[in-house]
């Protein structure tokens, strides 16, 4: 059940891949600012990566601190392990 919740959140309309795609399409014919670009990246790419990592961690029986670390990829924008806290 937790895996399904994680994937549903990652694909959702608020801070998820669907919401990020909507903003991406809206910004397609304009010059989006840095804040908009960061949102799009976090809502699309980072949400996809995070949902995959966290779902795998949950499925594997990861402890709360391990799941928290996997979730930190979203905060880092999916840019790399060294950016995670």
Please provide a brief summary of the model.
Helix content is 69%, strand content 0%. It has 85 residues and is mainly α. Helix 1 packs antiparallel against helix 3 (34-59), helix 2 (17-27) runs antiparallel to helix 3 and helix 3 packs antiparallel against helix 4.
Folded structure, characterized:
The protein has one domain. The chain is built from four helices and no strands. The two termini are 27 Å apart. The mean pLDDT is 85.
Q: N- to C-terminal separation?
A: 27 Å
- Strand content is under 5%
Helix amount: 55-70%
Which residues form runs of ≥5 with pLDDT under 50?
A: none
Q: For the residues shown, what is the average pLDDT?
A: 85
Q: Based on helices, strands and strand pairing, what is the structural class?
A: mainly alpha
Rg value = 14 Å
Instruction: Give the H and E element order.
Output: HHHH
Throw out a few tags for this protein.
mainly alpha; 85 residues; single chain
Helix and strand layout, with pairings?
Elements: H1 2-11, H2 17-27, H3 34-59, H4 64-75
Helix pairs in contact: 1-3, 2-3, 3-4
